[in-house]
Amino acid sequence: MSLKVTGISEDQFRFLRDGGDYVDEASGEKKHFDGHLFDEVVFNDSIQQFLELKEKLSDYFNEDNDEDIFDYIPPQKTNQIYTPKAVVKHMVDDLEANNPRIFADPNKTFADLYMKSGLYITEIVKRLFQNEKMKELFPDDQERIEHI
Q1: CA atoms within 13 A on the CB side of 66
Q2: 125 vs 83, which has greater pLDDT?
Q3: Does residue 57 lie within any of the structural domains?
Q4: Confidence bin at 140 (pLDDT 50/70/90)
Q5: Residue 53 belongs to a domain
Q6: Other CB atoms within 10 A of residue 127 CB
Q7: CA 121 to CA 129: how far, in whole Å?
Q8: Is 20 found in the same domain as 89?
Q9: What is the CA radius of gyration of the chain?
Q10: Quick check: 23 and 29 in contact, CB under 8 A?
Q11: 83: which residues sit within 8 A by CB, 6+ positions away?
Q12: Is 46 among the domain residues?
């Protein structure tokens, strides 16, 4: 099975890393590529840093995180730019300021009609999950998240 690693398949990645034989499309001639396109130490260190960041920032409910995993997503080919977490928080703060106790009402329904990255709806889920009234109504975390 060949999985995608960024914009290339895992097999293509392994070929760039490890090398191998290939057929030159222009001449039809069989050739060999030595590989070693990636510096092993730098590559391994980069993967380790990624895994550490992934672990550190994977809990969106953790308010102790100053950073957000979405801050590390580069601009996409579609020119889609993720709304910064601070802006999303401000938007949700404004929603709550204009609708006090909105996150304490278990009968409210929320929708993000222009969803791209899901950050807005994720912040709403976080507010609902952490709301004291919702905790009172649904003391079990799993039950509360299922209700949300």
Answers
A1: 0
A2: 125
A3: no
A4: very high
A5: no
A6: 20
A7: 12
A8: no
A9: 23
A10: yes
A11: 117, 119, 120
A12: no
Q: How many CB atoms lie within 10 A of CB 82?
A: 19
pLDDT tens-digit profile of 75-94? 666 666 677 778 888 999 99
Extract the tokens encoding 54.
């992934």
Q: Which domain holds residue 104?
A: 66-147
Same domain assignment for residues 88 and 132: yes
DSSP 102-143: GGG-TT-----TT-SSSHHHHHHHHHHHH-HHHHHH--SHHH
Model confidence pLDDT, tens digit, residues 25-82: 999 999 999 988 877 788 778 778 878 877 777 776 676 777 766 666 666 666 666 7
Q: Is the pTM of this model over 0.70?
A: no
Residue with tokens 């260190």: 45
Q: What percentage of residues in the chain have a pLDDT greater than 70?
A: 81
Q: Into how many domains does the chain fold?
A: 2
Q: Does 60 map to a domain? A: no
